[in-house]
Amino acid sequence: MAEQNSSRGTGSTAGGRSGSFLNDTRVRAVLYQILTIGAVVAIAAYLVNNTLTNLAARDIATGFGFLEREAGFDISESVIGYTPADTYGRVLLAGLMNTLKVSVIGIVLATLLGTIVGIARLSNNWLVAKFASVYVEGLRNIPLLLQLFFWYALIQTALPHPRDALQPLEGFFLSNRGFRFPYPVWETGWTLALVGLALAAVATWWLNRRAGRIQGETGRRPNVIGPAVALFIGLPLALWAVAGAPTAIDVPELTGFNFRGGARVTPEFAALLVGLTLYTAAFIAEIVRGGILAVPYGQTEAAVAIGLRRGLVMRLVLLPQALRVIIPPLTSQYLNLTKNSSLAIAIGYPDLVATANTSINQTGQAVEGVAIIMAVYLTVSLSISAFMNWYNGHIALRGGRK
């Protein structure tokens, strides 16, 4: 009897310990996470296995080996050199560069336009404020795809054919085939000139930082504008001259029903850029307006009281403080513009999605093609977010000081 009671007591104790182990919230939390991860991995493994089985049953090749095969199709424009004899990997790279080109230019233009319109909405001039309000409310509430169709159709119908092209200056032609203009025959001198511009920008940034440090120590700010202008003009010219000072210019000319030579802005690129810029600028304008209104009005009163003009109040007092409110939502708009550029396929601009779609149609490897598109947009979006988060942290107040 004693042994039975002892064994029962031991069992009861073990059961109690087991129950207390499962009742621990931390243990349950870890257990639930393990079970959730296991379920996700199992579902993913099932989907991958099912996909590979179906592809094998249809005799469809898998993997990314197709990227090394010849593409065999041309695209209307490319930032980098590309011919139909190049590989699928090359044409996808060309599409990515086209996407980055329109995204970067669109972000810059939308930021400038959105800032101007946002400030205009706060103007004391009734007509300026109402015009800015109509612009914001109108463009924000029209789907972007319809706006792209509108701008593309406008360019195609409002501009003349190449034979009747508008010619504002000698060598410049504007028609429904795009805008053609003279362009230097690219040689080493022009590459070095661009390097000079980049070096001048870095040197100007360093001079500006140095001037700010000296101003904080002495109260006097050294002149930066003069040296900056000299750097931006002198350094590129010097490098251009060292490389032989190339001056050959490729001038466009009409041959048959279209132009050849020079550089061009295609109708597809122009319509996409205008649509993305105007649409995104409408949202940025509201972000800028809200950021300015978030600054206490006492800041404006104090600036006016010491004799600052309205323009200086906005530039030196309100915008620097509003920037800390503006940056986080502005990041979202930059991401939206980059992702909205995928609508380029609707008007024939050869961006990443368009080139990948043609590659998928020719190779039948849809899974790999879509995976490449998703990976690229994810990488670009995370890069933009990382940069904007860094900048937001750079301008954030620390301990009551910048």
Automatic annotation (TrEMBL):
Transmembrane as UniProt keyword: yes
User: In what residue span(s) does the ABC transmembrane type-1 domain sit?
Assistant: 96-388
The lineage, from the top, is: Bacteria, Pseudomonadati, Pseudomonadota, Alphaproteobacteria, Rhodospirillales
- Transmembrane intervals: 29-48, 102-122, 142-159, 189-207, 228-249, 269-292, 370-391
Q: Which PROSITE patterns match?
A: ABC_TM1
What is the protein's name according to its record?
A: Amino acid ABC transporter membrane protein 1, PAAT family
Asked if the Swiss-Prot or TrEMBL record annotates the protein with the keyword Transmembrane helix, the reply is yes
Q: Which UniProt keywords apply?
A: Amino-acid transport, Cell membrane, Membrane, Transmembrane, Transmembrane helix, Transport
